Amino acid sequence: MSDTTEKLVGIVLVSHSAAVAASVAELAKGLAGGGTTAPVAPAGGTPDGGLGTSAELIAAAAAAVDRGAGIAVLTDLGSAVLTVKALIAEGDELPDGARLVDAPFVEGAVAAVVTASAGADLDAVEAAAAEAYSYRKT
């Protein structure tokens, strides 16, 4: 985990499944390599362990990764996007500088964590995650 005095962009991974969010967080942190890793928190499922999204879990994850450099929030599916948009619109549920990032969930998470771990600012983290849409597999 990173030193809390470092101003690194935090990453929140919102999935309808707690297991998916946690696994993608683990993968992204693992692929970021050694050294300082940006703070990453999964926010998956509902508080009772079911499938869905939870504003409370998202807000808690965002607070946990806030290091004062902004927070990139990546989501998996539709209602996760709507929940994050609602939290941002409310204005007081997420730390200042929290931003919904339009990116593929797995590839975008890896790119975001690697870029944030290198000390990049929120705009660069968002750009790296969004660029993952162009990754071709063939």
- Quick one: overall form? globular
SSE order: EHEHEHEHH
Cα radius of gyration in angstroms: 13 Å
**Sheet with the most strands, sense and barrel status:** 4 strands, parallel
User: Structural class per helix/strand content?
Assistant: alpha/beta
The number of distinct helices, counting runs of at least 4 residues, comes to 5
Could you name the ranges where pLDDT drops below 50 across 5 or more consecutive residues? none
Strands of the biggest beta sheet: in what spatial order? Answer: 2-1-3-4
End-to-end Cα distance, whole Å, is: 35 Å
Beta-strand segment tally: 4
- Fraction of helical residues: 40-55%
The percentage of residues in β strands lies in 5-15%
Mean pLDDT across all amino acids: 93
Name its key features.
138 residues, alpha/beta, 4-stranded parallel sheet, 14% strand
Architecture overview:
- This protein is α/β, with parallel strands linked by helices and 138 residues long.
- Helices cover 44% and strands 14% of the residues.
- A four-stranded parallel beta sheet has the order 2-1-3-4, with helices on both faces.
- The protein is globular and about 35 Å long.
- It starts with 9 loop residues before the first strand and ends in a 7-residue tail after the last helix.
State the gist of this model.
The chain is α/β, with parallel strands linked by helices and 138 residues long. The chain has helices at 18-31, 55-65, 78-90, 105-117, 122-131; strands spanning 10-15, 40-44, 71-75, 98-100.
Helix/strand layout:
Layout: E1 10-15, H1 18-31, E2 40-44, H2 55-65, E3 71-75, H3 78-90, E4 98-100, H4 105-117, H5 122-131
Helix pairs in contact: 1-4, 4-5
